[in-house]
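Note to self: user wants both folds in one dump. Writing first protein now.
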Amino acid sequence: MTQQQNLADFIWNVADALRGPFKPSLYGRIILPFTVLRRLECVLNPTRDAVRAQHAALAGSGVELDLVLPAVAGAPFYNTSQFTLATLGSTSTRANLEDYLARFSANARQIFEQFGFDNWLVKLEGANLLYLVAQKFAAIDLHPDRLSNHEMGLVFEHLIRKFAEAANDDAGEYFTPRDVVRLVTTLVFATDHEALNGQGVVRTVYDCAAGTGGFLSSAIEQVAEWNPDARIVPHAQELNPETYAICVADKLIQGYDVRNLKLGNTLSDDQLKGERFDYCLANPPFGVKWEMVQKAVLDEHKSLGYAGRFGPGLPRVGDGSLLFLMHLLSKRKPAEQGGTRIGIVLSGSPLFNGGAGSGESEIRRWILENDWLEAIVALPTDLFYNTGIGTYVWILSNHKAPERRGKVQLIDATDLHSPMRKSLGSKRKQIAQAQIDEIARWHDERADGPHSKLFDTTDFGYRRITVERPLRLRFEVTEASLAAYAAAKGADEVERFQALMGRGAYNNLAGLLAAAGIKKLGKAARKAVLDTLGIRDPEAEPVPDADGTPLPDPELREFENVPLKQDIREYFAREVRPHVPDAWIDEGKVDDKDGRVGVVGYEINFNRYFYTYVPPRPLEVIDAELKAVEAEIAALLGEVTA
């Protein structure tokens, strides 16, 4: 890690030449594409002359260059220019560099188009810095023999972080720390270890918020460690053009077909529609609003329902994390074809945000009732570059092992971390390989213990029942209440009620009407009486509805979340009735899906399951500490006033 960081710092020092004409927030726009260009140049350097000779030999032949030159280049891309960064010359530098870029194969040329590199070349030339910057990069050795693809990925990450710091931006939106990536890929691939060690294995992996492609690279590296003959085919979509460009460059150098890597917003424009993958990995941005794509998402939800990606429901606009999760689940292969395993990093809010019937709860319900959630791992805080919040790894599968069916494993790994020698932004902790192995062992053993607990999927569900209590009113006719009644819609028999003014209160509606000589009131007049002449009184008799049953008091209405495994009436008799004997369950509030009383909800209150009571310290200890602090303050004050 230190070597890559040092190299990233060395590359970043080129920015010293940019001081003055360019603001620090713009350095990354220049340094990143030049770094990519130099890396591609170093990869192609050994076959450069052979490619140019073959290109000259094919001139005028009509042969498609993309069918021949990649084999000569020994890479899926090539360049036929006579120029390199070292030979651009001090005159006509921009024209020569533009020729150099234009003669890359189309799959590599698009990288610089996404960077908007042409515009920066014009600006560098205008500042009389283009030749100097090109020469500085020409002197940096980024050949794969010196720097592996994994190490080069780390260099890019360090550069992006520096760029983000200079621009006061969020570097963490673009890549995930490699220790977190390694943990996720270990948990996702672990159960397929045997299959991945077979002969001629080909598996597809997909990241819907790819950033610089770190998840994809880690997946490829890990499978290669287990079985060098296995082949992982990466697929991805990324929103940011610059990080997309780095992802494409990285995969090109590794020899992959970058047509599987797409640029665009995954939520509003799925560019791999209909595709299914063996593995899905993602770390979508935490708590990001999705109002920019709200119309497209709503349209898909309403028009396609469960035939689309967002059938179960939609989360609140303030956090689109669960949209990404539903998107990944839409990419699952049928179980009979081996199914799909998913690893996604989320913040805590998708675990519990939203009550019964909300979009978030319905999404969790859909996942749990289909038995796709295998495990959730709570990670330590301070693991990410741009936030110190608690995060969670969700592992999902639509082809669970028999012993995991109907079960969900929760793993508390919040205490499993190592200190970093130097903080990187908000990242102050890391998960060492031995700790990753420990978490993987807990996952594999599925045992109940201090750090691992196994639950039924229904343990996270509940029914929200509506508990009503009777409306109790006493009735009193005063000048003010009669005026309010007379003004109310549907008021009737005003003169009869006026005769009761000053006669005191009536403990029930029947007594009021009898005293006024009224045998029956219309529905509107009855409501007006309750609203204006009635006063809430817990000692009064319940007000009956037209059918004689007690009217509920909206102000006393409460809700109870009854665990799915418990009978709601038994729960009510045990937990509610002893405290409020006149309460009842509103049987009309039923769940939309199963039609039973109570609205079904799901939440995963992680902390509740791993909470350990710590008794407060003895009062004598606290008192002694306070006295010691008081003595220290008094001594300091004595020094000041002496």
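First done. Writing the second protein, which came from a different request thread.
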Amino acid sequence: MTFLSPASAIVALALAGPALLLLYFLKLRRRPARVSSTMLWTQAVRDLQVNVPFRMIRPSWLLLLQLLALLLLIGALGRPAIHGAAPAPDVAVILIDHSASMSARDGESGGTRLEDAVRAASAFVDEIARAPSPPAVVLVAFAATAEALAGPTTDLRLVRDALGRITPTDQPADVRGALRLAESFAPVDADEATERARTLVVICSDGGFESGEPQAVAATEVRFLRAGPVAGEAPPFDNVGIVALAARRDFRDPAVVRVFARLVGPPGVALPAVLLIDEREYDRMPVVLADDDGSGVGRASLTFEITTRQAALVTVRLDRPDLLGADDSASLVLAPATRPGILIVRPDGDPPGDWLLADVLRELDPASLVEVGATRYDELGASLLAGIDLVVFDGARPRTLPPVATLSFGPGPPTPGLRIAPAEPRLSSFLTWQRTHAVMRHVSLDAVRYEPAAWLSHDEGAAGTRFEELARGPGGAAIALVEDRGVRRIAVGFDLARSTWPVHVSFPIFIANAVDVLTLRGEAEAGVSFRTDEAVSIPPPPPRAPGGEPVNLGVIARAGVHRPTAGVVVAVNLLSENESLLRTADSLAISGRPVAASQPGDTPAAPREVWPWFVLAAGLLLAVEWVLYALGMRVRPR
């Protein structure tokens, strides 16, 4: 017999035991009275002696019965249980883990952990096939998501066929989702206790889940059939993996790209890391993993720097064989530092090409630079936007707003999220500006004078918009950045012709910063990659209209470089520290109690709580104690 909650019983015994004994030590207060003789007061004398403090307690059947009853009640608080054979379930749910760590080549027979898990599940199916009344079986394979492959069925041939179709993935494991799916197959019964007593969940996995306690599950029994080596105090498994990868273009020079990677593995391991550009070796550096935080896990970070304005496939590869190959390389698709197409919209009658704004934009070497009047822009509309990444409104106020980034001077077109308040046109100066913002970096506005056309503020009624004040004048924001559904728009609340800004040294710096930020050329993620548990989306096929919806390819469960269509490259990576560490477990914590690893064929034992019998026995003893007390208090005739 075992106690499932011994702490409760110990605390109750420490409080209730002394309290019961103290009742027999209490001294009663009595009123003194004179009597002629104590011959007839023998019982009173004995009662008086019993109530003397600190006197040895005399043997008493009542005290013995009370102590036994108290011990039984305290034992019931400790939830006593006896182990016996678990009842046969109505439904057996088999959960097969086929996440990335299950592909580690350290199985018992020299294969992978997944092969061990499938063999254990097959042996369990053979075990229940020999039962007098086999339960209905459900087979679930889980990694990032859980999927029922067979059942509920009593035809075990279907289960064996589904076991042979399970394939490895490079995804992280989500055991919580698998247990939630297993619960959905529990038989529905009005009696909750009966429902728990009819479901068996069998987890075939290495147990290296990221969460310490998956969750509670409504089942009589949860069995854990471990695949892989026994967990213990041994050092980390012989595997080094890439768990993070990113690339950024330099803000000042978008041709410079820095590639960042982070590794985990056994501490002290030294290995070469290789950078590949379009599958050709570009650079190589040595890496040593160090345990800097005392966790027993080695970590290292590395940075590569390349110079290219072209699109490229960038791959970081570890030149060292280990137990898992899915995390030995990681790739991303480097987007080109494209030259933006720019459209300038001016008021009708304003001659093109004679203003400094066009000269500054031309010095940025755009892919195209087109100037039109406001009326022509309204007439042609979307036909002008082919190949255009940025529309500059130089004092023009057209009726429509383009679906691409905009930079406007003066009142500008109506912009969602931007409230424009007319301003008195008098010479003003800037009071403050955000020097750390990417648009205003290295921009000094101390000597700039202007006549405001409008003061800018956020229109709170426009849902889904974000407003940033970049520079402020005496009446409000003079320069602002608004983001509407992913499209950025910069508004300047005065005309360039009514300011000294165009001839100031800060003007070309501002224009270059604004173009970079609006077209996302600098200080943005330059590489695109997906994790094995993320949905993959690619740009729409040509001809690509502005604002076209991307094509969703769904989740790609295997890491690597994929080419779904001609000219399209997709990089999919594992990037999971928990999977790369290849942890195993000797037990799982489910429903607040440990479930130790077992093997197929082990006779399962389930604890049965017997505390109701303890309570019943205590009640019977108290009844006997009451009868004895009543008999002792009965007045006998003389």
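Dump finished. Worth passing along: The first helix runs from residue 6 to 25.
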